[in-house]
């Protein structure tokens, strides 16, 4: 009986020891699993933080690129607007009334926009000589006016064409009408080239006229000299033949 009791005790002790060992194993396994889970959580958190940081960096880069693109667009718009505003426009005046001078034209056109250069073509000297006898004498035949903005020049040409120059009856040039045309793609250098060409043609014409006048004068002087020489010869012959002719007449 005592042996059985001892055997039973040893068996129970072994069972208790086995249970303790199993509990320890389970506890250690649970701790290890918890540590692994924590490590996995930390790793996943680190990966998520890295991903968020990369996304933030990408977002910052995208924002910077978008901002740079917007800045480029705004700069392009500003430059285009500035270029559009800088482009000048030129209008042509086909009729210049008497006593109208460039300063009067500048004052009249400056009310519609900023004026650059103004040029009025004076009439020829031949026309001046013909009109000296009359009471009204025109000093200019045509003109060009440069506006700083071509859009203003277009509006002026469209609104003032075939309208009275003066708004009031007693105002100067009220009986005259504007004859204005906008010159598309026309620059002031074209006008300067045209004026230089006209001056060159005028100089060439004057040279030809002067040379022709010289030839005519030389021809006239030569003829005068020849006629004088012929007259001298005739006088000499008359002097020589005069007495003989008288003697024959007496006989």
Structure, explained:
The chain has 251 residues and is of the alpha+beta class. It is 69% helix and 10% strand. The protein contains 5 helices and 4 strands; from the N terminus they run H-E-H-E-H-E-H-E-H. Strands 2-3-1-4 form a 4-stranded antiparallel β-sheet, covered by helices on one side. It starts with a helix and ends with a helix.
Treating each run of at least 4 consecutive H or I residues as one helix, how many helices? 5
In percent, how helical is the residue content? 55-70%
DSSP E strands, number: 4
Mean pLDDT: 76
Q: Could you provide a short overview of the structure?
A:
This protein is α+β, with helices and mostly antiparallel strands. Helices cover 69% and strands 10% of the residues.
Q: Which helices and strands appear, and what pairs or packs with what?
A:
Layout: H1 2-86, E1 89-93, H2 102-109, E2 115-122, H3 125-131, E3 140-147, H4 150-160, E4 180-183, H5 188-250
Antiparallel strand pairs: 1-3, 1-4, 2-3
Biased composition (Basic and acidic residues): 1-15
Biased composition (Acidic residues): 30-39, 46-65
Region (Disordered): 1-65, 224-251
